[in-house]
Amino acid sequence: MYALTEEPKAAQSKEGADRKVPSYLELLEERDDLQAELTAHVHALPLALVVSDATDKLTMSEWSPQAEVIFGYGRAEAVGRSPYEIIIAPEHHEYVRGVVREVMASSSTIRATTQNLTKDGRRIWCEWFTRAIRDHSGRVVRIIAMVQDITQRIIAEERTRLWTSVLEQSAEGIMICDPQLRILVVNAAFERITGFKESEAIGMTPRILHSGCQDRAFYQQMWRSINENKQWRGEIYNRRKSGEVYAQWLTINVVCDPSGQLTHYVGTFSDITRRKAIEARAQHLSQHDSLTDLPNSELLVQRLQELAVTARRGGQKIAVLLIDLDRFNNINDSMGRRAGDLLLQMVAQRIASTVRHSDFVARLGADEFVIVLPELLQASDAGGIAQKVLNAIHAPAMLAGQRIVISASAGVCIFPDDGVEPEMLISNAAAAMLCAKRECRDSFRFYRREMNEAAAESLRTETALRLAIERHELVLHYQPQVHLTTGAIVGVEALVRWNRPGMGLLGPAQFIPIAEECGLMPALSRWVIGEALRQVKEWDSRGLAPITVAINISASEFHQPGFVDELACEIHRHAVEPHRLELELTESVAVGNVEATTEALNRLHRLGIRLSLDDFGTGYSSLGYLRRFPIDRIKIDQSFIREMTVKPEATQIVRAIIALARSFAMKVIAEGVENAEQLAALREERCDEIQGFLIGAAVTPDEVCSLLRNWSAAGFANRFGSGSGHDD
Fold first, then answer.
1. Is the CB of residue 509 less than 8 Å from the CB of residue 495?
2. For the segment 580-615, what is each residue's pLDDT rounded down to a tens digit?
3. Which terminal Cβ of the chain has fewer Cβ within 10 Å, N or C?
4. Domain of 682: which CATH number?
5. Are residues 537 and 636 in the same domain?
6. Pair (460, 497) in one structural domain
7. Are 123 and 115 in contact (CB under 8 A)?
8. Are 492 and 635 in a shared domain?
9. In sequence order, what are the beta bridge partners of 549?
10. SS3 assignment, position 609
11. End of a domain among 120, 155, 190?
12. Do 189 and 89 share a structural domain?
């Protein structure tokens, strides 16, 4: 950093122009005594005197004692040498030469600021007042300079500039007050955060920021810390000029002079409103379900603990209701996860709007919800609320453009009768819910102690079922299907059995619901498909007449990504003709994305796989499915077959289904045919095929071989009568 300043010339009168007045330097040259006196005065000044000749080298001839102090060189070391050698750094030589040229061309004093070298290698800042000394002819004979070390001044100025920059650019608000708490200084961040301009704040006290959110005790503690520790820091709520209250992190420091006398208070603060909002949101999310915004299990346990303390004091009861949606996985699998999420949000809203304001609703996880009913007068009151909630859930709703009806099962547990710890209350309510789900869905049950054993058994069954496939405990039995006109066996339906160790052979009703609830159906279905195809190939190798094998496919398996491709690979791997396989699908596969379902079914149809619509007549949009889906066969639900001989309306329904199927060129098979009367009624309605105990129960693969070898269509006709001759 360098600065050049030319001192103003003294005004000269007209007379002065004619008569030259001798300068001090000229007088010095003429009077040795005056020169000696002036030199003594100069040496006594805090400024150093440096005199050089007017050559390019600037050989120095005078070096005052103060110059020794500033630069560290003694007079003997400096006189006779060039300043370029000892006090001017090489990188500054050209600049100094420029200054010298300026000095020699001017009759005024030139001011320059330079960075110089000292004997001990330090760099210092110096201010030079330099002037050319001329002889009578005007020729420059000397260069004289007065020098002072301004390093500390430069440092102080730089520090001042730095702190001013920091003050103004700081993101934190800064406020400096005098001992009487009058505001002296504020920075730009103060203005930005508080809304008060500098002109509005100066002279005021920090009371202009008070929000009234802190009480007297808060400020008493604050000033106690300031007086005792010379500092306070903490969170405080202040008010902006607009009146908005905001959160602030404030630090107050006391500034004292060297004698210890208080001179200033310095407050630095930041607006933490956004951070507080983020923290509050994070705290909320940690204790609430992100999908429904209901409290989660963590907050549920905390709330139960608090309510239990209050209930003990008042001798009151608390009811815990655990609600689980029935067959929720079908919605997720068939309509997609987004639709499932929307359904959960809808259910959460229905539950919350049904219970009292004082009740506590939480989402436990997946499709499970918990309601806590505090201040319960009698346990039976919880049953009425449980039924009210189930009714609200059961109300029809529109989801993804389709009208759906869902149900739920609930379990009720009472504090302190059925448990006192939150975990135990929730567990017992879950046991009661599972009992309701097993006995009659869309209902609730109060907890009983024996339910825990049933719940434990359900868990044991789930664990054992997960291992059943790899342990080869599952087997397939096959129930024959007979053509009513020809009397021939045209196919079999594969039905899975579980040969559970220690329990014997279990039917599907004993473990399929558990497989559905715990998400095992996709793996189970894959095993059934592979095993059925293997068995078809084995029957063919024994020379048996080719038949079709029907397999039930759950909605969850059908909507698994890559289901069609995996099925095609299995058929190819077992080298079985695709038309030998029939997939029995319920209408639940179509709930949700009908377009995707139609595309998948068309792909299966193009592969040659036969498609059957199972449990027909029990759904709510069968006609639309028949029109769009490439269905080969309709299976009439056994509930209609069972009632044909006792309820005329059941016969009418069967007749309508058969007529509808014929209009779409589809075959019809009736399941659950158990007696000759039902068979006769079906034959009268011109049903195509039947299966049920009248023909035979599901049998082992070896028994199927015997059945096919020994089956006689004529014998069937003799036993049950002949058909009407139609074979549409």
1. no
2. 999 998 877 765 567 788 899 999 999 999 999 887
3. N
4. 3.20.20.450
5. yes
6. no
7. yes
8. yes
9. 492, 581
10. coil
11. 155
12. no
**CATH code (residue 56):** 3.30.450.20
| Domain assignment present for 471 | no
pLDDT at 466 over 90: no
Q: What is the DSSP string of 373-397?
A: EEEES-THHHHHHHHHHHHHHHS-E
Q: Which helix (H) or strand (E) holds 651?
A: helix 648-663
CATH of residue 451's domain is 3.30.70.270
Asked if residue 416 has a cis previous peptide bond (ω within 30° of 0), the answer is yes
Residues 104, 228 within the same domain: no
pLDDT level of residue 403 (50, 70, 90 thresholds):
confident
d(CA 64, CA 42): 8
Provide the domain limits for residue 192. Answer: 170-277
Instruction: Quote the number of domains for the chain.
Output: 4
Q: Residues in the chain, how many?
A: 728
Which ranges in 315-449 belong to alpha helices (H)? 328-335, 337-354, 380-394, 422-439
pLDDT per residue over 195-231, tens digit each?
999 999 999 999 999 999 999 999 999 999 999 999 9
Q: Which two tokens stand for residue 650?
A: 């059941």
For residues 504 and 382, membership in a common domain is answered with no
Contact 115, 125 (CB under 8 A): yes
| Final residue belonging to a domain, choices 225, 242, 277 | 277
Q: Two tokens at 120?
A: 């001990």
What's the Cα-to-Cα distance from 163 to each of 187, 659, 720, rounded to whole Å?
A: 11, 94, 108
Burial code (b: 16+ CB inside 10 Å, e: under 16) for 644-680 equals: beeeeebbebbbebbebbeeeebbbbbbbbeeeebbe
Are 253 and 265 in contact by the 8 Å Cβ rule? The answer is yes
Name the pTM for this structure: 0.51
φ/ψ of 142, rounded to 5, equals -145, 160
176 close to 265: Cβ distance less than 8 angstroms: yes
Distance CA(408)–CA(441), nearest Å, equals: 7
Q: Which whole number is the average pLDDT over 486-506? A: 93
472, part of any domain: no
Q: Residue 687: CB partners within 8 Å, gap ≥ 6?
A: 484, 636, 654, 658, 668, 669, 670
- Secondary element (H or E) of residue 208: none
- Residues 348 and 449: their CA atoms lie apart, in Å, by 29
| First CA to last CA distance, the chain | 108
